[in-house]
Specification:
The complex is a heterodimer of chains A (335) and B (504). Chain A is an all-alpha fold. In chain A, α4 runs antiparallel to α5 and α8 packs across α9. Chain B contains 17 helices and 22 strands. In chain B, the strands form five sheets. In chain B, strands 6-7-8-3-9-10 form a six-stranded mixed sheet, with helices on both faces. A six-stranded mixed sheet of chain B has the order 16-19-20-13-21-22, sandwiched between helices. In chain B, strands 2-1-4-5 form a four-stranded antiparallel sheet, covered by helices on one side. Classes of the chains: A mainly alpha (335), B alpha/beta (504). Chains A and B meet through α9 and α10 of A and α1, α10, β18, α14 and α15 of B.
Chain lengths: 335, 504
C-alpha cells in the first residue's frame, strides 16, 4: 500500500520550514533554559559553592577536584564514543582495574613498558568486545557485561585478591598521576589533551562522522557504503584503550594496583555522558557535553562535601540529577 | 435480519494528508452476513479507509454508522468494542506467548483473587479454535504456527471479542491453494452465522469466489459498486485503472546506449532466476505486487543482502559484490524503499548529502568543512531542496526534500546505475514531479535507472522498458510505449493464465 506513511511531511511547495534549531527573533526563555541547562547547572553549582565556602575558589581546591575527576573523565570520553555509536560499554571499570594492576606490577620495567602492557590489555579486551558485538551479533549490553565480569575476574586472579604495591616508585612513574606542570596537575593537562583530540576526531574526521552515522542509523550507514562493523570494533577498541589509560593514571597516582580499582567507573562515566546530553538513541551528543557532565558531577560532590553532606545522601541527589538530565535532553530533542 | 439498516454504513468519508487527498467522500455499506470485497490499486485509499474503520486515523469528514446508529472510533479499542476487528496481512501476534494468550489477550477470564482462570481460558480458546477449524492445543506457543494458522488464529481472536465485522487485509498473500480453500470454508461458515467481512485483495479470482459485492476505489474515490454475480475480472480491472496521466511525467525521447548492468540467473531470498539488462540512458521500470520480490532483488544486487546464485556484470565485466561498499565502488546506488533507511535523522543536511563521498569533502580522513558546505549548498540549489540552511537537521525537512538529499548524495558520487525503490512513496504531488524530472535528467545524462514502483502510472509514465515480477520470478517484460496498466496488472497478478506478453 502506498498511502502516505508520513503525514508529518510538509508540502514541499510551501515556504521553507522554520528552523527549530536556532532561536527566533523573540527570545525563547524556555528553549534557552532547555538548550543550555547543563551549562547553567554547572554555573549554579559554582556560584552556590563560592557563596558557601571561601575555600572553594582556591586554586588548590579547584585543581584537586579536577584531578580527582580525570580518571572517570578519560573513561567517559571513550564511553561517549560508544554511546554515540548506539552502544554501551559496561566493561570499562574492570579494564581500568586490570590495566592499573598490570602497570603497577611491571613498574620495575620502567613506566613506558609498564604503561604499554596496561594499554595493550585494554586494547585487546576492547577488541574482543567489538568482535563479540559485530561477529557474534551480541547486544553490546550483554557482550560488555560478560567482559566486565570476566576482566574483573582476571584482575582478581592476577593480583591474588591483594594490592600490588610499587616498590620505591620513581619520579617518572608517579609523574603522570601526581606530577605538576606549573600549578596544574599533570593528569589534568593530559585529560585536556585527550578531550581536545577526541573532540577533534569526532568533529573533523571521516571516522568521527561515521561514528555518528552508524549510531544514528546503522542500516543507512551500511547502505551508504560505510563499514559499520569496522567502525564499531574501532569504537570499542578506543573505549578499551582509554579505560586502560585511566588505569595507568591510577597506578601512577596511587603507586599500587588494587583488585577493586575502577569499580563502578562505568556507571559514573555513563552518568556523565547522559548529563552531557548524549542520548542512548545514538548519533546525538558530543565530548564537550560529557566533559560538562564530568565537571557537574565532580563539583557537585565537592560542594556537598564542603557542606558536610554524607556520601550516602549525595547518591540520592546524583540519581535525581541523572534522570532529570535525560528528561531535559528528551525535551531538547523534541523542540 | 432484525433491522433494515445495514451492519456498517460509511458515508462521505474524507481524509487528507499534507499534499495528498487520500480519501474523498467515500461511501461503503456492508450488510449482516455479507462479504464485501474492496479493490483498488496501491495508493487508491484502501488502507487509509480501513485505518479509519479501525480507529487508527480520524476522518476529516463523513460518518460511520453501525446498525443505523452513528459511532466514533477514536482508537482501535473503540472499534473493537463495537465489534469491528482487523486481520492483518502479516499477523500481529505475540509469538512467545501461547495460543490462548493470543486469542484472549485483553479479556482472559479471571478467577478468585483476580488470578487468571487458565482452565476456563483454555476451554474457551478450544471452542473458538474449533470454529476456525484449528485443532491445536491452546498451550501451543504461537511461534510454532504456520502463516495460515496465524491468519486463522487472528480470526479466532476477532471472534473472541464478538466481532460482527472482520476486515481481512490480503489474507491469502502467503497461503497455499489448499490453505486458501480452508480459509474460505471458515469465512463461509462464519458468514452463515451472521459475521460480515470486508475482504481486501489483489486476487480478483478470489473475490469472484468469496464475495457477494465488490467496491472499487480509485485515487481516493469510490468509483463503482458491483454485485459479484454481475461483474467480471475484466470489468474490475478496467474500473481499477485507466486514469489520465496528464503531464506529470517528462517525455521519453531518450536514447539507450551500451549495457551498464546485467544480471544472469540471479537468485536469493524472495526471488529466483532473474535475468535482465539495463542500458545507459535508460529507465527500466520494475512492476509487481507488494511481496513480489522486487525490493529483495534490488537489495541483493546492491550487496545489502546475500545472493544464492547467479552473476552480476557491470559494463560487461563480472562483478563481485559482497556488500554495499563493493556495489558503490562499481558505480551502483540503491535508494531504499523506506526513506528512513537512507537518512541520518539527527545529522545536518550537509552530512546527509555528502556521507557517501568522503573523497570529495575530506583529505587524509580529515573533513574540510568549507568544501563540505560548498558542495551541499551547490546541490541544495541545483535540486531545489527547501531547507533553511545546510546545517539544519534533516529530520525537519519534508519527505520530498529528504528524498532529494538522498538523490543528491548519489549524483555527487557520480554513480552509473541508480536503483530507485518506491522513490515517491508518501511524498506530495509537487515533489513527485520534481523527482520524475530528476530521474529523467539522470537518464539523459547517460545514467541507468532502475525504477521499482507499486504505482503503475509512475511506472508507465517513466519507463522505457518494464519488467514485471510475480512471486519472486520475472513474469514478463513490456516495452514502455506499449505497456498499459491492464497489461502490467495481468502480468503482476498471481497464477494468471493470460500472461501472453511473456517474453524470453
Amino acid at each position: 500500500m502506498t498511502e502516505p506513511s508520513q503525514p508529518m511531511a510538509a508540502p514541499a511547495t510551501g515556504p521553507a520550514a522554520p528552523q527549530p534549531a536556532t532561536a527566533g527573533r523573540s527570545v525563547n526563555w524556555t528553549g534557552f533554559l532547555v538548550q543550555y541547562s547543563n551549562v547553567l547547572a554547572l554555573i549554579v553549582i559554582l556560584l552556590v559553592a563560592s557563596a558557601l565556602s571561601p575555600y572553594f575558589f582556591s586554586t588548590r581546591n579547584i585543581f584537586n577536584v579536577l584531578r580527582g575527576a580525570t580518571m572517570v573523565g578519560i573513561v567517559a570520553v571513550g564511553m561517549t564514543y560508544v554511546i554515540l555509536n548506539r552502544g554501551i560499554d559496561l566493561s570499562v571499570g574492570s579494564l581500568v582495574g586490570l590495566s592499573a594492576a598490570l602497570t603497577a606490577s611491571f613498574a620495575d620495567q620502567g613506566i613506558l613498558a609498564a604503561a604499554a602492557i596496561g594499554l595493550a590489555s585494554g586494547l585487546f579486551l576492547g577488541l574482543v568486545n567489538g568482535l563479540m558485538i559485530t561477529m557474534l551479533r551480541l547486544q553490546p549490553f550483554i557482550a560488555t557485561l560478560g567482559m566486565m565480569i570476566f576482566a574483573r575476574g582476571l584482575v582478581f586472579v592476577y593480583t591474588g585478591g591483594s594490592n600490588i604495591a610499587v616498590e620505591q616508585p620513581s619520579d617518572a612513574f608517579t609523574l603522570l598521576g601526581s606530577g605538576y606542570l606549573g600549578p596544574v596537575p599533570v593528569p589534568v593537562v593530559v585529560f585536556i589533551a585527550i578531550w581536545a583530540l577526541a573532540a577533534w576526531v569526532l568533529r573533523y574526521t571521516v571516522f568521527g562522522r561515521s561514528i555518528y552515522a552508524v549510531g544514528a542509523n546503522e542500516e543507512a550507514a551500511r547502505l551508504s557504503g560505510i563499514n559499520a562493523d569496522r567502525n564499531k570494533v574501532l569504537v570499542y577498541c578506543i573505549s578499551g584503550v582509554l579505560a586502560a589509560f585511566a588505569g595507568v593514571v591510577m597506578a601512577s597516582r596511587l603507586t599500587v594496583g588494587e583488585p577493586n580499582g575502577g569499580t563502578l567507573f562505568e556507571l559514573d562515566a555513563i552518568a556523565a555522558v547522559l548529563i552531557g546530553g548524549t542520548t542512548f538513541d545514538g548519533g546525538v551528543g558530543s565530548v564537550h557535553g560529557t566533559v560538562l557532565g564530568i565537571l557537574i558531577l565532580a563539583f557537585l560532590s565537592n560542594v556537598l562535601n564542603l557542606l558536610n553532606i554524607s556520601p550516602y545522601s549525595q547518591m540520592l541527589l546524583k540519581g535525581v540529577i541523572i534522570v532529570l538530565a535525560v528528561v531535559v535532553s528528551e525535551w531538547r530533542k523534541r523542540k | 435480519m432484525r433491522d433494515s439498516a445495514p451492519l456498517l454504513r460509511l458515508t462521505g468519508i474524507s481524509k487528507s494528508f499534507p499534499g495528498v487527498r487520500a480519501l474523498d467522500g467515500v461511501d461503503l455499506t456492508v450488510g449482516k452476513g455479507e462479504v464485501v470485497a474492496l479493490i483498488g490499486e496501491n495508493g487508491a485509499g484502501k488502507s487509509t479507509l480501513m485505518k479509519i474503520l479501525n480507529g487508527i486515523y480520524q476522518p476529516d469528514a463523513g460518518e460511520i454508522a453501525l446498525n443505523g446508529a452513528p459511532v466514533a472510533f477514536p482508537d482501535p479499542h473503540a472499534a473493537l468494542a463495537h465489534g469491528v476487528s482487523m486481520v492483518h496481512q502479516e499477523p500481529k501476534l505475540c509469538l512467545a506467548l501461547n495460543v490462548t494468550e493470543n486469542v484472549l489477550i485483553g479479556h482472559l477470564p479471571r478467577g478468585r483473587f483476580g488470578a487468571i482462570d487458565w482452565k476456563r481460558a483454555h476451554e474457551r480458546t478450544r471452542t473458538l479454535l474449533r470454529r476456525v477449524g484449528l485443532a491445536m492445543e491452546p498451550t501451543t506457543p504461537a511461534e510454532r504456527l504456520s502463516i495460515a494458522e496465524r491468519q486463522l488464529l487472528q480470526i479466532a481472536k476477532a471472534l473472541a471479542s464478538e466481532s460482527a465485522l472482520i476486515v481481512l487485509d490480503e489474507p491469502t498473500a502467503s497461503l497455499t491453494p489448499v490453505e486458501v480453500d480452508l480459509l474460505f470454508g471458515i469465512v463461509r461458515d462464519l458468514q452463515a452465522a451472521g459475521v460480515s467481512f470486508i475482504y481486501i485483495s489483489h486476487h480478483l479470482e478470489e473475490i469472484l469466489r468469496i464475495a457477494q459485492r465488490v467496491s472499487v476505489l480509485k485515487d481516493g474515490r469510490k468509483v463503482a459498486d458491483r454485485l459479484v454475480s454481475e461483474t467480471s475480472k475484466d470489468e474490475m480491472l478496467s474500473l481499477m485503472v485507466g486514469r489520465s496521466l496528464g503531464d506529470r511525467f517528462p517525455g521519453k525521447d531518450r536514447r539507450a546506449g551500451a549495457v551498464a548492468l546485467e544480471v544472469r540467473g540471479l537468485s536469493g531470498r524472495g526471488f529466483t532466476d532473474i535475468s535482465f539488462r539495463v542500458h545507459r540512458g535508460e529507465v527500466v521500470g520494475v512492476a509487481g505486487l507488494v511481496g513480489a520480490g522486487r525490493t529483495e532483488l534490488a537489495r541483493a544486487i546492491f550487496g545489502a543482502d546475500p545472493l544464492k546464485g547467479g552473476s552480476i556484470l557491470v559494463n560487461g565485466q563480472p562483478a563481485r559484490i559482497r556488500n554495499p561498499a563493493d556495489a558503490i565502488a562499481l558505480g551502483i546506488a540503491y535508494i531504499a524503499e523506506d526513506r528512513r533507511d537512507g537518512l541520518f535523522m539527527p545529522l545536518p543536511v550537509k552530512e546527509n548529502i555528502t556521507c557517501v563521498t568522503p573523497e570529495a569533502v575530506a583529505s587524509a580522513g580529515v573533513i574540510r568543512e568549507s568544501s563540505q558546505r560548498r558542495i551541499a549548498l551547490d546541490y541544495i540549489k541545483r535540486l531545489n531542496i527547501r531547507t533553511p540552511s545546510p546545517d539544519q537537521q534533516i529530520r525537519f525537512l519534508s519527505g520530498g526534500n529528504q528524498q532529494k538529499c538522498i538523490l543528491a548524495r548519489w549524483i555527487i558520487k557520480g554513480v552509473q546505475t541508480i536503483i530507485f525503490d518506491e522513490p515517491t512513496r508518501g511524498i506530495d504531488v509537487g515533489a513527485k514531479t520534481e523527482i520524475y524530472r530528476l530521474i529523467d535528467q539522470l537518464a539523459r545524462e547517460g545514467k541507468s535507472v532502475i525504477l521499482i514502483s507499486s504505482e503503475l502510472p509512475e511506472i508507465l509514465g517513466m519507463s522505457d522498458r518494464v519488467l514485471v515480477m510475480e512471486r519472486g520470478r520475472l513474469s514478463g517484460e513490456v516495452d514502455g510505449r506499449d505497456a498499459t496498466e491492464e497489461s502490467l496488472l495481468a502480468l503482476a497478478l498471481p497464477a494468471n493464465p493470460s500472461s501472453h506478453e511473456l517474453q524470453p
